[in-house]
Amino acid sequence: MSVTTGLFYLFSSVLLFAAFRVITARNPVHAALFLVLTFFQAAMVWMLLKAEFLSITLVLVYVGAVMVLFLFVVMMMDINVENLRAGFWKNFPLAAIVGVVIALEMAAVLMGGFKTIDDPHSATNTATAVAGYSNTKELGKLLYTQYLYPLEVAAAILLVAMIAAIALTLRARKDSKYVYAGDQVRVKSRDRMTVIKMSATQAATEPVAAAPQAETKV
Has residue 137 got a pLDDT over 80? Predict the structure, then answer.
């Protein structure tokens, strides 16, 4: 067994274990951390398959952005795990049926997709054999030449979605406190701090004696 095969089995085993712990961990924070581990192992498998761009994208986007957001949301919200698990066994048969169907469909697709003919004169084998071949470079060429317009459309859609999300959160609320950006720009240093001149020493004032109260006789 080669080193690549051994690493593939190692990464795959850790990936399956981490994915199983994602759905079985009782603590949602632990489940999110196991999902991070799952993404890392999938990235390593893709690296072994010489899909460097997909591997780095998975780590940067999902681990570096999406999962960090998930962890913040999970840790800031007071999630009642007992209420979430109340109807687990009630919905388990339907979930099991859906999971089996998905597994069979994925198996059918994967088994049919790996049946390729090893042609030494094929374009794939020829491109792989070229020295200095880079999948990331070839992918960049395709994105910015053949798929330039779909890439620009996708970028415009993401920009509109980001602006819409910001606009939805900027609604007027009475309990929210904010500062206008124009006021911050126009502010001067003298407006932020007021210097009061006081003498260094002051004469001590003598305490005033209280007047005696008149006694009343009954």
Answer: yes
